[in-house]
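go over this:
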Amino acid sequence: VMTNVILTIGIGEIYARGYFSIEAGLPFIDTNDRTRFIGFYVETATGTQLIGSFGVVRASDGREKFQIVMVRGKDPVTGAILYAYGWVDPATLAPAMGKYYCVEVRVLIGAGTGICEVWIDGTKQVTLTGLDNSVQGTLIKKIGFGNMATEQTPVGGFPNLPAITIYGDNAVLATEYIGPEIIFTVPNVVVNTVSVSPSTTVAPNTAM
């Protein structure tokens, strides 16, 4: 299930944060199998267009990796949209089932000055710079949260889609860095109590 957040006014820079857990579906089967947690859409004359997304992909080395994909420009000859990719080394941080990850993505739209940054659990993992991610639109109008899309390479000519379950929580949008939720832990406090009968008189400053 995907939840779309439609912005009343388009914006050129945004931070999107959410907590996501893959509860079922890993490991993937084929190279380029993927799912997406967060997607960014720009405003166009006919609606909105996806320009970038964050999620998990099965790489050619057979390992699942966190991945960000973002428009980086347009081919000057063919006009085809070009993309930049960023991965998190699984040796540093690998996707695991049944664990919530705090994912935050910053997108700045620019003509050669575009930026995309990714934080996971408060640590910056990916930075893409020098992007021309304005070729399809200059204002971010919609953010998608959840199981945006699941894609799998056909095996033997037949689609072999995995059954993926993703939980999401605590989605936040902002114009500056958000960061993980701060959890306060209150220590256990032992309180000594004294029982006093109704007829007992306690003088001032008297220790009990």
Remarks:
- The radius of gyration is 24 Å.
- Confidence is low (pLDDT under 50) at residues 199-208.
- The first strand starts at residue 2 and ends at 11.
- The chain is about 0% helix and 55% strand.
